[in-house]
Design brief:
By secondary structure, the protein is α/β, with parallel strands linked by helices. It contains 14 helices and 51 strands. The strands form six sheets. The chain has a 21-stranded mixed beta sheet that branches. Strands 23-26-29-32-35-38-41-43-45-47-49 form an eleven-stranded parallel beta sheet, with no helix packed on it. A hairpin with a 6-residue loop joins β18 (501-506) and β19. The N and C termini lie far apart (93 Å).
């Protein structure tokens, strides 16, 4: 009996063991099909990461809807699961409430997404819009979704790296969601497109837009329903350009006009009438695509997914980082096989990008930089604490979803190897015609190659007769031959046939290489690709003299009329001195990417204006060295259809001393964006908003600002220090601070028909030795702090006079006067 019992036990153990092995084998196969290393790694991750998820308590967000509204959402989910796709007409919005950090607010929400991964199981995806001044972590519009819809921690890293490169990035992270008292576990939150996104990224107000994908999704739905035909409407060329916040734009004519500009520029690119470099901020666009190569985010290179922002100040389009689909190993870079040297209307969006020479140069430059191991090493060092926190939140529910850093380092290695081409092209010797050596070049690479020159026997380089870029070889095809020509007047310096060597590089790369020229001709030959010469430049203006050796642009003395734009590229210094009078007519502008020094005298200022009130204005942008203006007088340019300020400093530095600026009351006078501004002894007269300071740093001393048509001084974000200044007879507010601005004011006298000083949206102000006379309130502290927190203001020896009262604090702020708290928290 004992032997029989032992046998049964052994048999049972064997069965359990076999079942366990079979189950383990099946589990291992299942994991590997889902791109996981396997069961062994999975078990180790559970043991290692699951406890970390409970070392940190995640942020808790609660949403509630009423029963009948829940039924509406359920109908959307049911319809989506039946069709296999979420249609726009199914996404009905319902009312609800949101609770976070002890505060409750009203919201509107709906099911979001297009594919059914957004509505599987209980983890539905939501689009939430906070009402009035509510919000969540600074966002009024945001999405909540399963972390897997954005590749878990990879999307978190994607947005942090993009933001670090100065690209507009969404706020993205992880929270715990409770919906109608049901704990749905860990969700990803993702910012949607609205003014808060631009404010958080330090951009001036402008349209956020995309190519409308609705017709493309009709095509996708046809495919899901197994109805396949060639739909003309599904193409990129057929898509309309769609702005986020279109309903708001219907009421705002100025915003609509700016969006119309963006549409015109984007369509100009699509029609191949405008270059990418003329429309886009190519450096930021190049950074985004280089970083997508590192991240392995090639799946996001679809025209129906990309998002844009139009900067109305410099009239350039920027990319918005969105939905990277990252963490895949790459086999080539995104720009491979694309450059053909010409932009065509038939090309898809990304082919258009990569056929722009300026963009491709910048793209390769950033690929070289970002593919260095040190780039990721330093990024992970800086982002380490935030990544640890995000990981702990994810591990609470998904302990196996680690960030696989090896994928990114492997992608860097691929990029380095791709850029290190073994041979740029084949070159064939066609002999000499007089002093000109002729060759044929045949593309062999996936990347375009720039030919720098022929090495002479004395070690010098003879450049090609005209700039030559050997285009990419088309995938699966032979390279199309093109002609190269080199002028060598001294034949004694010409290497012998068979010894001739060319120097080249991948277009935009720092590393240069050499290749030997075949000692024989390519019999079939080929045509020479045509490249247009440079467009007319600043030298077309008779008062401009350019010293290329000193890299200086001189504006000659005299009185000059400009009827076309004066555009100065970067890399120069512009200098003008009195007597100098520039008369801008017919919308003509001065646009400089180089610093501009204008030096006048007290009795002979440099003058810039418009005799017929039609001038476009002055724009200085993107210069590291400061521009200095002394004794400059602006007589005004007249109203602007684009509602842009007369004088704009954008991402630059400027020092203004003893300048007098005047403008039409229908147009803003002076505006700065992400700039450093110093003003001393200056006068501002007229204009709508006289001085607008956005997301920068300003030091202002002895300013006289008179007769603003609206607000005199507006500080949006950034910091401003104002001292010993007078604001007189402003029709609106004398001094306004919004969007978390930091203001320190000393020795002011403010006169305004509206409020004297207006502070809101989490701004902080310290005001000393100041007198305010206002038609409204002397000081108005607004309650709008849902996204930025309360206002903080400290007053010392400040006299407030207002026809509506000295001080109005709408609640929830900190106001201190002469050492005592006043308002809600004080007396």
């Amino acid at each position: 009996m004992k032997r029989i019992g032992a046998g049964r036990v052994m048999a049972g153990t064997a069965v359990v063991l076999v079942l366990g092995l079979v189950g383990g084998w099946m589990a291992d196969r299942h994991l590997k099909k889902r791109h996981h290393p396997g069961l062994k790694r999975f078990a180790a991750q559970i043991v290692r990461n699951y406890p970390k998820g409970f070392q940190q308590k995640p942020l808790l967000l609660e949403l509630k809807v009423k029963e009948h509204d829940l039924d509406v959402l359920q109908q959307t989910v049911d319809a989506a699961l039946e069709r296999g796709v979420i249609l726009p007409e199914d996404r009905t919005t319902v009312k609800g409430t949101m609770a976070f950090a002890g505060e409750e607010s009203n919201v509107r929400l709906r099911i979001k997404g297009k594919m059914t991964d957004h509505v599987k199981g209980e983890k539905w995806s939501f689009r939430v819009v906070a009402r009035k001044d509510g919000g969540f972590l600074g966002m009024k519009r945001f999405s909540l979704q399963h972390p897997g819809t954005r590749q878990y921690l990879n999307e978190w890293l994607h947005h942090r790296l993009m933001a670090g490169e100065g690209i507009i990035a969404l706020r993205y992270g992880f929270i715990q969601l409770r919906f109608n008292d049901n704990d749905l576990g860990i969700y990803a939150y993702e910012e949607h497109f609205g003014p808060e996104l631009l404010e958080n990224n330090g951009r001036p107000e402008g349209p956020l837009f995309r190519f409308d994908p609705s017709l493309f999704w009709e095509h996708r739905l046809n495919g899901i329903n197994k109805l396949r035909f060639d739909e003309a409407y599904a193409a990129y060329q057929a898509a309309a350009i769609d702005a986020f916040g279109t309903n708001d734009m219907k009421k705002d004519t100025a915003a609509r006009a700016v969006f119309e500009e963006a549409v015109a520029l984007m369509d100009g690119v699509r029609r191949a009438e405008l270059k990418v470099a003329d429309v886009f901020d190519v450096d930021r666009l190049a950074k985004r695509h280089a970083l997508l190569d590192v991240m392995g985010g090639h799946h996001s290179l679809d025209w129906s997914d990309v998002k844009f922002y139009y900067d109305p100040v410099v009239q350039r389009v920027e990319p918005v980082a969105y939905e990277s689909f990252s963490a895949f190993r790459i086999r080539q870079v995104a720009g491979a096989w694309r450059y053909m040297g010409a932009q065509r209307e038939s090309q898809e969006l990304h082919d258009v990008y990569f056929n722009d020479e300026d963009f491709f140069r910048a793209y390769v430059h950033h690929l070289e930089r970002m593919s260095r191991t040190a780039y990721l090493d330093s990024a992970f060092l800086v982002l380490g604490p935030g990544l640890d926190s995000a990981s702990a939140t994810i591990f609470r529910e998904f302990p196996w979803k680690e960030l696989d850093r090896s994928v990114l380092y492997d992608n860097q290695q691929v990029i380095r190897r791709v850029l290190d081409v073994p041979k740029g092209f084949h070159a064939y010797d066609h002999g000499s015609v007089g002093d000109t050596l002729v060759m044929a070049a045949v593309p062999v690479e996936a990347l375009p190659i720039e030919v720098h020159g022929l090495l002479l026997t004395n070690g010098e380089l003879a450049p090609p007769v005209r700039k030559t870029i050997v285009p990419s070889r088309r995938r699966g095809r032979l390279g199309v031959p093109m002609e190269l020509r080199f002028v060598v007047p001294d034949t004694g310096l010409l290497p012998a046939t068979g010894d001739r060597v060319l120097e080249y590089s991948v277009l935009g790369a720092a590393q240069r290489k050499t290749l030997e020229v075949f000692a024989y001709a390519l019999v079939d030959g080929g045509g020479l690709d045509a490249f247009k010469g440079p467009a007319p430049d600043m030298r077309d203006h008779p008062f401009v003299r350019v010293d290329e050796q000193e890299r200086t642009v001189h504006l000659l003395p005299g009185t000059w009329a400009l009827t076309t734009d004066l555009v100065v590229p970067e890399g120069y210094t512009v200098r003008g001195a009195a007597p100098l009078d520039l008369d801008l007519r017919g919308g003509a502008r001065i646009v400089s990417a180089s610093p501009m020094d204008l030096i006048g005298l007290p009795d002979m200022p440099v003058r810039i204006g418009s005799s017929d009130r039609s001038g476009g204005g002055v724009l200085l942008h993107g210069t590291d060295r400061p521009s200095t203006w002394r004794h400059v007088r602006s007589a005004g340019f007249g109203p602007s259809e684009r509602a842009q300020a007369a004088i704009v400093f954008h991402r630059t530095r400027a020092d203004l001393h003893d300048c007098a600026l005047q403008e039409d009351p229908a147009r803003d006078l002076l505006a700065t964006f992400s700039s450093r501004l110093v003003m001393k002894g200056c006068t501002l007269a007229g204009g709508r908003d006289q001085l607008s300071l956005s997301y920068g740093l300003a030091r202002i001393d002895d300013l006289r600002a008179h007769g603003a048509g609206d607000d005199a001084v507006v500080v949006r974000g950034g910091e401003a220090e104002v001292q010993r200044s007078v604001v007189g007879h402003a029709a609106g507010v004398g001094l306004k601070a919004v969007a978390h601005a930091q203001v320190r004011a000393t020795g002011l006298h403010v006169q305004a028909r509206g409020d004297g000083i207006d502070l809101s949206e989490g701004s902080r102000a310290e005001i000393d030795d100041t007198r305010v006379d206002a038609g409204g309130h002397g000081l108005d502290v607004d309650e709008r702090h849902g996204r930025y927190g309360p206002v903080t203001v400290v007053l010392n020896d400040v006299e407030l006079r207002g026809e509506k009262g000295e001080l109005r604090d709408k609640g929830g702020n900190r106001v201190e006067r002469d050492g005592r708290a006043i308002g809600d928290a004080g007396e």
